[in-house]
Amino acid sequence: MLRYKRVLLKLSGEALMGGQGFGIDPQILQDIAQEVKEMHALGAEVAIVIGGGNIFRGISASDYGVDRVTADYMGMLATVMNGLALQGALEQERVQTRLQTAIEMHQVAEPYIRRRAIRHLEKGRVVIFAGGNGNPFFTTDTTASLRAVEIGAEVILKATKVDGVYSADPMLDKDAVMLPRITYLEVLQQGLKVMDSTAISLCMDNKLPIIVFNLTVRGNIKRVLTGEDLGTVVQGG
Predict the structure, then answer these.
(1) Nearest to 210 by CA among 18, 9, 2
(2) What are the residues whose beta carbons fall under 8 Å from the beta carbon of 109, sequence distance 6 or more?
(3) Which is deepest, 48, 77, 130, 187, by most CB within 10 Å?
(4) Distance CA 79, CA 85 (A)
């Protein structure tokens, strides 16, 4: 039994790297595609926002002399490359997909059109949103919150490499504890690295819950969808 019908899965570009320091690990890509296929088979309407940090990160490049606006556009193009790779992996799993980009490039993807994206979801297609939101100075976290609100998603599934949100960095602080539930305001006030403040504020204003969970454990996406208590739930107080 599904707890959530329409969901937005937020994947970082780094999630595609696996143990590599750069690029896309084919096995990781296949594993993610199979997990998404399982979501789809359960009857969930799945939209995905994917980052580009495994290829190019705009905010980092701007520290090395690249104009920030130009660097951010380069980062958006990196998300399109990841989106194409994920689309290919899903199509190999016989899952119908549509790739939509905020920056128009008709030869490779549809332009982002909200009503068309919703229609694709209703027809059982997985929709991948790439190109950020088309504007510099915004992260793919903010894009995920924006797209989730626009398409009427019931939850954002924030896929990470850790089990949830911790009180401190567990790699640096042995006393850090995982927080099973936390409010939007606590995330903002404590400066916890869940999503950036713009993304959290958008979710808070629209009462959109976020579930932060470990993507590297096989089957976790299915467990979240079917209602198991997993990871950290970020919502109102």
Answers:
(1) 9
(2) 80, 83, 84, 99, 100, 101, 130
(3) 130
(4) 10
Superfamily for domain range 6-235: Acetylglutamate kinase-like (3.40.1160.10)
Domain ranges of the chain: 6-235
Q: What is the pLDDT of residues 50-104, one digit of tens each?
A: 999 899 876 666 667 788 899 999 999 999 999 999 999 999 999 999 999 999 9
CB neighbour burial string for 49-63, b if at least 16 within 10 angstroms, e if fewer: bbbbbbbbbbeebbe
Q: Give residues with Cβ within 8 angstroms of 222, minimum separation 6.
A: 35, 38, 39, 42
Whole-Å CA distances, 94 to 41, 109, 170: 11, 18, 39
178-179 and 165-166 as β-strands: parallel, antiparallel, unpaired? antiparallel
Distances (CA, A) of 181 to 170, 199, 220: 17, 18, 17
**What is the value of pTM for the model shown?**
0.93
Distance CA 146, CA 144 (A): 5
Structure tokens belonging to residue 92 = 């190999």
